[in-house]
Amino acid sequence: MNYIRITKEFTFEAAHALKGYNGPCKNIHGHSYELSVTIKGRPNPDPVSEKNGMVLDFGELKNLIKKQIIDPFDHALLLNSEVDQKALLNFGEPFTNIIFLPYQPTSENFLLDFARRIRPLLPPGIQLYSMRLRETSSSFAEWFAEDN
Questions:
Q1: Residue 77 and residue 83: Cα distance in Å, rounded?
Q2: One pLDDT digit (tens) per residue for the chain, 148 residues
Q3: pTM higher than 0.90, yes or no?
Q4: What would be the CATH architecture of the domain defined by 4-147?
């Protein structure tokens, strides 16, 4: 039986700032991110299974990505943990959903982080094939398993 790839698309809103960057992205700003996650596997060949013909139920993939990425990152302020955390936390109410990351919060680094979060949780026989994270209508980053 042949391999099939399936893709599920997601959206989330988040703000970030790039520490030490010499340009406008050093300031806090937001994006409407679009994430596409593609997995690869063989369709279930069991004719009596309710999941016959499926690589993975799209609902299962949705729940996994939602729990690992969308829920924590949506409407969050994403910052490098090297920023002055105390100063930001003193602002109080407007900044209650801040995630301090051990990396520069770029689309490229988000994809590396997302792959680390997703890969170990996929069922046996299912592989993370690729991801695309669109930051703007004309800019995106991609991650491919074959490159990693």
A1: 12
A2: 599 999 999 999 999 999 999 999 999 999 999 999 999 999 999 999 999 999 999 999 999 999 999 999 999 999 999 887 666 666 656 667 889 999 999 999 999 999 999 999 999 999 999 999 999 999 999 999 999 9
A3: yes
A4: 2-Layer Sandwich (3.30)
